[in-house]
Structure formats: structure tokens, C-alpha cells
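INFO batch 0412 | record 1 of 1 | parsing
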Amino acid sequence: MKLLMNNGSWGMLLGRSHPLLVHLPIGILLIAFILILLSRREKWRHLQGALPVVLLAAALSAIFSCITGYLLSLDGGYEEGMLQTHKYLGISVAIVSTLLYLLHRYRERFPKLQLATAAVMVLLLSAAGHYGGSLTHGDDYLSQAMPAGLQQLVGVHQKAANVAAYTNIGDARLYEDLVQPVLANRCYGCHNEQKLKGGLQLESLALIRKGGEHGPVLKDSMPEESELFKRLLLPETDEHRMPPKGKPPVTPQELELLHWWIAQGAPTKKTVKELTKTPRILAVLDGMQPATPLDKQEFIPEEKVAAASAQHVQALEAKGVKVLPVGSSSNYVTVDGVNAAGFSDADLQLLLPLKSQIVWLNLAGTAVTDQVFAVSGQLKHLTRLDLRNVGLKGKGIAALNACKDLRYLNLAGTTVGSDALAPLKDNKKLEQVFLYQTGVAAASVQQLQRSLPKLKIDTGGYRLPQLASDTTIYHKVSS
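INFO prediction complete | emitting C-alpha cells
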């Protein structure tokens, strides 16, 4: 791997020591300001004896910082306007600190100017420090760390957090939705309009292709030959490694994503499903599938309903059934009988007072029978019904057609027969039916599938192919 190298010099060395040395005059100048304030009181008057040395050291260190700052600016890579502002503020600090030293020497002639000059010096020092930090970390470095209340007070608007613009990873645009956020989080801090480290700006694909001082950083379809990717692989101790030491590194998943994007020709406006995928990138993309908030899941109706009666909820919970809201801002509830094995047909009427609120009903392993269908059919917003391992035969299952939002039905481990499936063909929104270990014949499954082509019917009984790696063979080795 070949990287471009810079020839060092004393000027470059002194310039790059500026961020280290600039803190010295800052500390000394602040100490000088404090000493000036304290020495105005009679009890601290003796501190004036230390002021000449402190003020002289502050003036000299401020001047030296200006020199190193100028040498650093010759490296380039900084936004010109902000750089000029920082430079002139730094020079002003050096001038005022020198003036402050002279005023102390001739304080008898100008007794009232010293404190005012010291106050001006502190203001200039603060402004110069702010612009210096903005050059290094970006102009919103300080404002991003402000609490929300302080941001509103000073009129700063926090940038919106990166929110996935897609609900399915296959619909995500590779560059705009996946690659650009990685570059924003890991690279924009040093390669933006204000700070052009190496003359390189990465805030758009056009700027990436333009490259920096050392030429192009992107070679389409060749990630191993692209500086943009190569420098991410260098050890942390290497001066050319990106992001540099001390910055959060690119994760293995982000590396794989950038490699895939470049290998695909660094496209824009192309979605994930349109591009060729390797097994490695499929694993990465699977982990990037955005989670759906609980109160936004597709199995929850959008219609607003009133809150469930606490008295009726308590009546159900007295039978061992758990009633929980599906989301913090939703009145819909899920009813779960996982710890209520004795819940029977006689208890089903307790569900009806909550018929508008119940969206998920789990009675798996309870003592209900086919009467559950007649009651469930009255739960007008029911979207999920789990009846695994219940004594069902399927009689009356047609009542579920009244549940216009029913998407999920689990009948695994029941004695539901083939004839029971036929009425389900009228439930057009049904998406998943589980029939593992039931008495339903394959012909009935196929007939239902023809009626509802988009329905996923899971009959279980999976058999996985045996791989060579599943078997370990030991060979005796003769000594």
C-alpha cells in the first residue's frame, strides 16, 4: 500500500505545535487578569509585585503563538474567512497583552486604563479561542454540546439527528441514506467547508471526486486503490490513518459498507435492492434494518380509541391474564394468557368490555375451545391472534372474518382440520397463518394459498441440508 508523504521542515514543526503552545498564553493572560483584579484591593496589594513578570511572559507567549499560528496557516486546509478572523483576533490579543505590560510599567501615568485594557484582552482572548476551536472542530462544535434550554436562549437550532429515511433496508439509497451518514459522522469534522484538511472536502460526491491536494481519493470499482478507503485501514499509530488518533474509528460494518459502495462504482440514487450483494454485505445490511417503534408497528390500527376501563382490566388480570398497552401513547392493549393456563371458555366474556382496545390476543396454552372464535370475532381491532396448543377443531372459525384488520393467526399444535381453513379465504388482510402440527392437509393449504396469494402459510417440518462442516471425522495418527 503506497501513500503520499510530506517532507517535514522546522517551519511545519513549529506551526503544528501551535495548538499545544497556544494554551500557555491563555493561562498566563487569565492569571494576569485575576491578579490585576485582586491587587486593586488593599489586602492583596502585594500581588502587584508579581504582575511585571506575569504580564511580560503573557505578552511574549502571545507573540510566539501568533508566529506559530501563522506558520500553521501556511499548511492550508482551513476556511479562509474564519482563518483570517482568528488570525487578526490572535494578533489583537498579542498587541493588547503587550500594551497591558507597558501600562503596568507606567501605571502612575495611566492609573485607570489597566483594568479596562485587561477586560478587553479577556474578551479578545475568548473570541480568538472560539474561532480557533471552530477551525479545528467545526463552527457548531460548541453549540452542539449546549443543553436544549441554552440553545433556545442563545438562538441556536440543533441539527436534526440522522433518522433513517427508509423503513426497509432494500429501499435505502446506498450513498444518500447509508454512506453519507458514515462520512458525516467520521469525516466531515476534518474535511468540510470550514476545515479543508489536505485540501479535501467530503460533503458531496462531486467534492469527493474532486479530491484534495494530493489528487483523487476515489477510484470507481477499486476500493483497495482508493485513498478514501485505504487510509481507513491503517494502524492508529500511522500519521496518515483516518480518522486520526483520538477520533472515533470507523466500525467494521461501516468499512464493509464503504468498500461495497466503491466496489459498486460509487453510485448515487441507487437503492440497495438494485445492486449486487455479497454474503458479507447482506449480513451488514441485515443489521441496519431500522426497528419499528412499538406504537408504529403495522399491526396496530391508526384509528383512535378510548382508554380501557381499569375495572375491566383488573377483572382479566384476576384470572392471571396480563393486559399491557402496546405503546406509551396508545390506548390499544395486548392481552397475554401465558401465565393463565386455567383461562377457559367461561372467562372469554371478560374480553368483550375491551373489544375496542384489544389488538393482540395470546391465549396459547390456555383451556379455551372453539368458542374462542365467536368472542374473538367481536374484537373489531384484533390484528394478532395466537391459539397455539389449544383444544381447537376449527368449528366457527368463520367468525374471524369480522376482524377486518386480522393479519396474524397461529393455530400450531391444535387439531384444526382441513375443512376449517376454507372460511379464511374471505379474510383479505390476513398475512401469516401458522399450521405446524395440525391436521390440515396439503391440498387445503394449497387451496387457501390460491385464494390469498400473498398469504404466508407456515406448516413447519423444516429439514436443513447437512453441510460437510456439520460432521467431524477423527483419524487415528500412527506414531
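INFO post-check: The first strand starts at residue 322 and ends at 325.
INFO record closed
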